[in-house]
Amino acid sequence: MAAAPLYCVCRQPYDVSRFMIECDICKDWFHGSCVQVEEHHAVDIDVYHCPNCDVVQGPSLMKKRNNWHRHDYTEPDDGSKPVQAGTPVFIKELQSRTFASGEEILMRMKGEVVTPRYLERQGFHYPIVVTEMEGLGLKLPPPTFSVKDVEQYVGGNKVIDVIDVARQADSKMKLSEFIKYFTNPIRPKVLNLISLEFSDTKMSELVEVPDVAQKMSWVENYWPDDSFFPKPFVQKYCLMGVKDSYTDFHIDFGGTSVWYHVLWGEKIFYLIKPTSANLALYEAWSSSPNQSEVFFGDKVDKCYKCVVPQGTTLLVPTGWIHAVLTSQDCMAFGGNFLHNLNIGMQLRCYEMERRLKTPDLFKFPYFEAICWYVAKNLLETLKELREDNCPPPTYLVEGVKALISALRTWLKREVTEPTSEVPDHIRPNHLIKELTKEIRYLEEPVSGSKPVKSQGSGCGVAPGSNGCPATRSTLERLCQARRARRAARRLREQQRQAPKVPSNLDILERHTREVLRRLEVGPLEEDAAFCAKVHGKLNKVSTASAAAAESLDDNHLRLMLVNGRIISNQILSAPRRERPTSPSTEEAIQGMLSMAGLLCSSKPEKVASSQEHWWSSSSHCSPLEQREAAQHQHRLQGDKSPMDSQGNSSEAWDNQGLPSPLSRSHASSPETDYQYCDPSMSPPLHPSKRHAPNPPPISNQATKGKRPKKGMATAKQRLGKILKLNRHSRVFV
């Protein structure tokens, strides 16, 4: 295999991530960092001589400047070509222009007033200016924070994208080189840095975004921690521009809203309202071949000038078209965020970016993915508001409609475009269908359904307010609940992955089977087939039951019951031995019914093995309780029915195959009578005073979502099934 060719004075193979320049004499290629040539300097070199050729041929030849108004300053200046954006001539002309005052559109507010609740009520349609940081929740370094401090916190080796303002072109360089350029009083060209996102650096600890941006942000509220796509970081930017830096008219990626705070220096914003006409003009201007030669502010009715001095914060809403001039050396902090208030405009801006074929580098990262996440969460929001009988705000309904239309378009587009941003755990067609249903519920109420409350006093809202209490801080309230549910879901998943411990119900079933097994004898020949069928049914146990049985085969099980529930169990090791002599049916039934919380013995008894029963006896009852039990027993004397012809035991069975709570056993022995009482440490109650095991629900709302899952039998049902099957198998003696 041939070795890779080597280049430069360092004799290293080609690296696509590093800038290289070709020597016009020896035709070899050199890394810019190895020969001290920055990428933005390379465009000024006409003929390059590498360090080896420089000795013989002399220094490199630079391009000759012929004009100050074109991006290519080598073009001859014959006065026929118009001025292009960003050039020195353009900057001078821009500063001499007159514009409509920004005071016509700006909303000057105090920081504590700018909250999600305020914007939900009043809307976020015009730029907001806050002259004081107090109340905004914004945390920033002091105004003495310098560009060298940025290098210390971020790291000088970080590669950044800078803009050569005169050419309106991007180039890459190390942050340390930019800081060196910024601090040099002699600057041969104007460089602007506006894309330094520092969320993954130490400087992130010094900055906290405004509360309103944090609480409304889609990424902060809806982006799941387990997403397959990497989380977008667009909330924290540091902007460092020298005097006369200029960014031409644009809309922030994905139609995001943006906050700016000028730490020191000054910036001037040129703002244009995003009306339908202006957006159409903007798209046509952006796609025109002479875009840089036309000042977009001249194509619209009004372009507003807004000066943002040191210490001022500016919030620009969705879709606003704006250009920015740095009138003096400046450091500013800012961030972008998507939100629920202007979903339709955000989607419109994104589709415009697609039509203009904007490179992915300049688009919101995974915009479509975040929209799917938002759609899933907004579906839950609409359902919760409908259950609360409270209408969602108009902005949310209109936003969901726009979102449904966009999702359908993207889903159809996937047929021809292989790249998909639909998250794996989202069913796109089902999600769209459910969202459409919720919108239909709002627009066409189903006949016979409960009418939705109007946004008035019926919802407990003061006149003039916008919506019911559930909609005032919808995002904040529902997102907190959603994060709690997400944490609970992760906890449940962790528990499911842990080894399953047998439940009390499984132990109860195991104990019942053990008692019945000791009672079994060889089945009658004519019932062999029937018994085989019964045994087959009994052997179908759950995984947890099987695990419990495996651990209990060589042990004795001792259980403690309170109100029919197992509160403790002990496993006593014992050597395996032959099956003991079968105890009487009465003892087996007594044990099973005691575990089900139906009976407790009135007197202590001895079993064939001389071991005392573990269930409750009448010795725990007071004399008064014993007298009540005796009176109750006397009233029930006539409720017995023989179980077999030998008269060894008698039981009263109910329709479900369960022993009746009014049953007695050992009719020939009065000392073994049983009373209906609670097998707990507390005094037993009279049957008429016992609490109902399953009290009726107070209302449908109270029991919503709390019904037992299908196939999950209660302890009484499972015990009854086992007893019924064994009773019909005729294997008792």
TrEMBL record:
Keywords: Chromatin regulator, Dioxygenase, Iron, Metal-binding, Neurogenesis, Nucleus, Oxidoreductase, Transcription, Transcription regulation, Zinc, Zinc-finger. GO terms for cellular component: nucleus. Residues 625-642 have a biased composition (Basic and acidic residues). Residues 198-354 form the JmjC domain. Residues 643-653, 662-672 have a biased composition (Polar residues). InterPro entries: JHD, JHDM1_Histone_Demethylase, JmjC_dom, Zinc_finger_PHD-type_CS, Znf_FYVE_PHD, Znf_PHD, Znf_PHD-finger. Its cofactor is Fe(2+). GO terms for biological process: brain development. Residues 5-56 form the PHD-type domain. It is found in: Nucleus. SMART domains: JmjC, PHD. Residues 617-715 are annotated as: Disordered. Belongs to the JHDM1 histone demethylase family. JHDM1D subfamily. This is Lysine-specific demethylase 7A. It comes from Dicentrarchus labrax.
